[in-house]
Structures are given as structure tokens and as C-alpha cells.
Amino acid sequence: MPLTTVEETTMKRRILLGTAIAFGLGLSTVSAIAEPPPLAQKDRYKVGFSQMESNNPWRIAETKSFHDTAEACNWDLIATDAAGSAAKQVADVDSMIAQGIDILFLPPREEKPLIPAVMKAKAAGIPTFLVDRSVDPAVAQAGEHYVSFLGSDFIDQGKRVAEWTLENFKGEKGIIVELEGTTGSSPANDRAKGFDDVMAQHDNMEIVASQTGDFARDMGRQVMETLLQAHPDVNIVYAHNDEMAIGAIQALELAGRKPGEDVLIVSIDGTRDALQAIIDGKMGVTVESSPFFGPLACEIMGKYAAGESIPPWVKVEDRIFTKANAADHIDEAY
Ligand code: GYE
After folding, report:
1. pLDDT tens, 205-242?
2. Which CATH number do you get for residue 168?
3. pLDDT at 294
């Protein structure tokens, strides 16, 4: 297989690093191009997992996935919960560093505020893997500040929702309300981009309002209530996650609307409640975004410890759930 550009870059860095050492240059010269800290091969690892919040089934399923993996992967797991605060998440990582973790798995709540956590872990000699969300690539990069990002392609998720909507919307003109995820988070930025770019190419589709519901059910419901007053003619709701989609369904029903009949609800994740809403005919589609990162984390850290080169992005492939298959998957949903 031909080398990708990233692999080539990594190789060039290694060669450069080797040359620098061979010529006896000082460490300071080398550190400008230094790779993330290595991971020693050990029987047991002290593993840090810094969860950002636990206010929705997706987050709870992700944390559980790490706990469920701990024994089989020989982890002593330290898991924290930042309760929705990026500042607390940075402090949680500080405390894990002080406790001497060997490796950090970090889902950064927002793209910029979590950069200090990534940098401090590197400075402390701890390799970091970003899971499920990423940080601002202009400031911190895989293969340098952190090892790799394990997660979905959020732009593609938004694009797939838009394409499904174009194929399945029955009306003439789509009046779209978009409920965005947490402001400044990578899935909110990219799910908007993927969906909005496709819709911008279709004259019969108009996004009349786009507002954050912070990826939360209750906020999704409240924002939908407000937006419904300004846009009573809405006939498509695109929510960046299922929790906000369910909140929107509640708001619409309270206002006497019929989700699934006079308004099409489309979303991302694949939670149990969303699959049930699809089965019940209230929701049209949810593109999967899996929270089950524990086993992948175990596999990738094993490879890293063994000295294998890890791609900057370990991409998770996502399925799509509609009326055609929701009932087949609801039992495995969370
Ligand atoms: O869609 C959402 C969660 O970062 C991919 O965050 C994750 C998203 C997921 O709170 O439900």
C-alpha cells in the first residue's frame, strides 16, 4: 500500500529526529519537532478517561464502555466527569496527571478550551488520544501534540442526513430549523457544515433558523418552543443529536404539531429513544455516531505501545437507521 501523506510526514519527522540526535544537537532543537510521548509496554496501565458531562444516554454509554473494557484490557481506570464545564475538564486532566496516569483518553468538550489539557499531558510525558470529539487543528495536531483522534466523520454525518432528507421530504419547499450542538465543539461545527453545504445547493430548501441546544434534550425542547413561535411554518427539523431531536418532538407535540406527518425530524446518534421514535413514525432518520469507544481505545493503545504507527485519525464507520432497520437494532441501542 502506498504511504499516505501523513505517514510520510511521520517518517520524515522520525528521520529528522534521528539525524538531530546523531549530530548531537541539544534536546531543545529536537523538541520543536517532537512526537507525542511513547507508551511503555506494561502488564497494567493507569488509564485516564476525562468525560465532559453525563447528562445524556450517549455520554453514559461512552463512560460505561470504558469501564466495561477496563478489566479485559488490564486498566486501572480513573474516570472523571466535568459536569458540562470545559474549565473543570481541564482541572480534571490536571488531577489525573498528578495521579500519574500512563495514558489519557480525552473527549474535549469544546475545540479551543481543552487545548491546555492536551499540551499539559504532553509536557508531563503522557500520550493523549482524543476520543469522540477533536480540538482545533490550527493549534494542536495529531502525531505531535496528541497521538490520534478516534472518532466519526461529522461532516459526512451531516451530509448523509441532508441527502436522506432531500430524498425523503415530501413537500415542495423545505422550511428547516437546525438545532446545533454545543457551541465551539467539533461535532457541532462539522455537522452544521456537512448539512448546510448540501442544502445550500438546493433552492427548495431554506434553513430559517439555526440555534444551539447544547446537545441536551431539555434545551432542545426549549429552543424548539421559541423557534416555533417565530417560524410556525417549519416542516423539517435537523437536530445535531438525538437528544435534541426528542426534545424538539416534545415541543412540537405540545404545540399541536404532528412530528413524522407535518414535520420531518432528522438527526444523528442512534439512541434507543430515537430508534423508538423512528419505529413510531415520529422521526425519519438518525445517522449513527457510536459511543462505544472502550474496545477501540484498548486495541489502539496496544498497537501504540508495541511501536506501530497510528494514523492521525482512526475513523469510525457509521450506519444509518431508518424505518427499514430501526426495529432490528433497538435491542443493542443505549
Ligand atoms: O453526538 C452527542 C454527544 O461528541 C460525537 O456528543 C459526540 C456527540 C454526540 O453529547 O450526543
Report:
1. 999 999 999 999 999 999 999 999 999 999 999 999 99
2. 3.40.50.2300
3. 98
Residue 103 shares a structural domain with residue 61: yes
pLDDT band at residue 34 under the 50/70/90 scheme:
confident
Could you identify the atom of ligand 1 that is nearest to the CA of residue 242? Answer: 11
Cα 187 to ligand 1 centroid, rounded to whole Å = 7
Domain that holds residue 228: 154-289
Q: How far is the CA of 19 from the centre of ligand 1 (A)?
A: 43
Domain assignment present for residue 19? The answer is: no
User: Residue 292 above 80 pLDDT?
Assistant: yes
Residues with CB under 6 A from ligand 1: 56, 58-59, 132-133, 187, 215, 241, 243, 268-269, 289
Same domain for 178 and 258?
A: yes
pLDDT tens-digit readout, 191-210: 999 999 999 999 999 999 99
Against a cut of 0.85, is the pTM above it? yes
What is the pLDDT, as a whole number, of residue 33? 54
Ligand 1: residue whose CA is nearest its atom 10? 215
From 110, 153, 215, the mutation candidate for ligand 1 (largest count of ligand atoms within 8 A of CB) is 215
Cα of 238 to ligand 1 centre, how many Å?
15
Identify any residues that bridge with 81 across adjacent strands, giving them in sequence order. 51
**How far, in Å, is the centroid of ligand 1 from the Cα of 306?**
31
- CA 48 to ligand 1 center in whole angstroms: 20
pLDDT digits 0-9 by tens, 52-68 = 999 999 999 999 999 99
Query: Is 86 part of any domain?
Result: yes
